């Protein structure tokens, strides 16, 4: 079963990040897909890849062997064209101790998701060497603003980053500061913020709130900071101005959400 790991050029020799993996296998006229979030530790030959949560799976019934073969080839080609590398080793499942459930805790925070607009086109135009330098400066700028406003980095996802804040105002101010800082690198970002609960278990964090934050960011235009109604309601006395961007269906998230643009 061919396995693919999504790796940004800046992550090739980095340990301790999370990403996404795909497994593709054809058996006769059926194609079996398995995918999900993974955690990568080590680099080079010593690298270990673990599923962070049980992976999702899907079976495609193609009817004929030829159609299944064509489907599998196209699926593999898509992964290779979207910054996935072929994995030679296995993807392991972390063993859980019997009392692991006792470690679960609920936390409430403002969640920030930042993403570079048009990163694929910029990387192609600049080339790998220059893009690696730009990404290094990008993450340095983002982390500097996170430190200033006491944000906590959770995970990087390709050219995106997810962080949490105890106060929504700090998250909004950090988003604006990051936007201005990375413009000096010739980059435009989109940012989404949402406030909600998530679950902490050991070093892992999970919860629908993270997905909502990412979906809010996906609705933002270049240079725009969008917040969910949950964030806006918490900041009614902050003095920060918001403009209503209407109701939106967030992919994979129940119901429609009213979003607001941060005005400065």
TrEMBL record:
Domain (Guanylate cyclase): residue spans on this chain: 110-217
GO aspect biological process, one term: cAMP biosynthetic process
CDD domains: CHD
PROSITE patterns xref list: GUANYLATE_CYCLASE_2 (PS50125)
Gene3D superfamilies (alphabetical): Nucleotide cyclase
Classification via InterPro entries: A/G_cyclase, Adenylyl/Guanylyl_Cyclase_3/4, Nucleotide_cyclase
UniProt name for this protein: Adenylate cyclase, class 3
Organism placement in taxonomy: Bacteria, Pseudomonadati, Pseudomonadota, Alphaproteobacteria, Hyphomicrobiales
